[in-house]
Amino acid sequence: MYINNPNIKLPNDPNTIVWKYLDLSKFLDLLLSQQLFMSRSDKFEDQYEGTFSEPTYEEIKKLSEHNPEFLKYYKSQREKVVVSSWHINEYESFAMWQIFTQNSEGLAIQSTIGRLQKALEVEQNYKQYIGEVNYIDYKKEYIPFDDLFFPFLFKRKSFQYEREIRIVSDVSELGLQIDNGLKVHVNINHLIEKIYIHPKSENWYKKLVIELVSKLGYDFVIEKSDLESDILI
After folding, report:
1. Of 31, 60, 61, 169, which sees the most CB atoms within 10 A?
2. Is the pLDDT of residue 204 over 50?
3. Pairwise CA distance, residues 58 & 142, whole Å
């Protein structure tokens, strides 16, 4: 279920467009299971995920001098927080196609922040929060630690191109042992507004995606990437 947290930064307009770039197998898994995969926060490629900036870490160390469990708690928390990453952009991103799809058989889901919030209402086991990632200098800038989710909503400035929105969930209260991540139930029709096919894909691939989506009982708008539109001159 989606929970609003007033401490977490989010664009005011629920119609803000967000994207998820993924391959066909992950897309089909989403449709078949009607569940969205959320990765364990410490399994991302960026080793700084869920950690603190240097100024914040120094403050936490001082607080931990007489309470070592305080620091231990924050370190272990990374194993109990799961994340689904989305990209804010009014338009498609050539860079996102390059980074998040391995070949010409990738897809992009177009949604909005409001749709994400609505889609998560069907999940009853886990609480989800949605927040915009802040990009800072980890050597100089401070990450607040008065909210559990703040370490997972800050990244280094070198990742600023991602313009990331995150669905975040903390499962520590449930006592679960998470390997790589977990799946949460979503309403697919709320989640997905449009599907875009990889700009370098062949026509047969677009037809295949349309046929598969139709056979699974969905009627999303499916379009070829705008990056592959006809040249006018």
Report:
1. 169
2. yes
3. 10
Q: What is the pLDDT of residue 231?
A: 43
Span between the terminal Cα atoms of the chain, in Å: 50
**CA torsion through residues 39, 147, 61, 153, sign:** positive
Single-letter amino acid, residue 169? S
Alpha helices in the chain (DSSP H): 24-33, 54-63, 68-77, 94-100, 113-119, 188-191, 203-215
Residue 141 and residue 54 in contact, taking contact as beta carbons nearer than 8 Å: no
* Mean pLDDT confidence for 78-107: 90
Asked if residues 220 and 195 have their Cβ atoms less than 8 Å apart, the reply is yes
Tens-place pLDDT, residues 212-223: 999 999 999 999
Q: Provide the CA 219 distance to its chain's centre, in angstroms.
A: 24
Q: Does residue 12 register a pLDDT over 80?
A: yes
